[in-house]
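Objective 1.3, modelling of assemblies. Example input:
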Amino acid sequence: CGAGSLALPRRSMIGVFDSGLGGLSVLAAIARELPTADLIYFADTAHLPYGDKEDHYIRSRVLRIGGRLVDAGCGVIVVACNTATVAAVAAFREHFPDLAVVGVEPGVKPAAALTRSGRIAVLATESTARSERLADLIRQHAGSVQVHVAACPGWATRVETLQLDDPHFAAEARQHLTPLLDSGVDQIVLGCTHYTFLAPVLQPIIDRRAALVDVADAVARQCVRLAGMEARGGGGLTLLATAQPERLQAALPALGLGWLRHRLRSAARLIVA
Ligand code: DGL
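Predicted structure (tokens):
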């Protein structure tokens, strides 16, 4: 690190945030791409789920959290939540024009490019499913492909409670997915970052009839493009949450992310009123 970069104060952290555990799927992809970046993961666990909230509420949460991440030294912020991106990324960019901001939106574009049947589905929270932004995304990228948008109430909460292999959920998911598969859908977009962790339940139901589309790796690549100097740090990870930060740390192995623990420096509660 040269004298110039020491003399100039810089925001050297990459901040990744979500309502809860879901954005850890995006954090993991970023951590794999950027082994020496210093990362902060922020979960608004005192206010989850976002998926059943009104846009104005989510927007005010996102702007406040963004301010705290800037104060904590973040120069790149990843809104690792489809619901928060839909509701607030435009306002967020306007509010923090100097930040590099990456949002997460359902992978309608890759799914539309990959489909052979001409039918795709987007699984999302209620808030994302009814949003005008998703409707715009579909208008822009789906072309003649038919898009079924399926709201999945309660699925993010299931991830939060780590009840991932409950047979009742498998039955519910089968009921949800079977009509989509029967209608010929061959690409299923995971339009909520929490749903990545449900893939082990969804995959056997889908079998070989469709593929799951997850944009976490694409988001991580975008983060690499924007990170620049921020990617060169000590490779540390700080976990912050508005409630029960110890749950984030404890959840890592259950989510298949035990390997992230070697980067962990601290976990703390941060009240964002
Ligand atoms: N993980 C968030 C998303 O990608 C939403 C989960 C929630 O409802 O809080 O949409």
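The beta strands are 13-18, 38-43, 74-79, 100-103, 119-124, 146-151, 187-190, 211-213, 237-241, 264-269.
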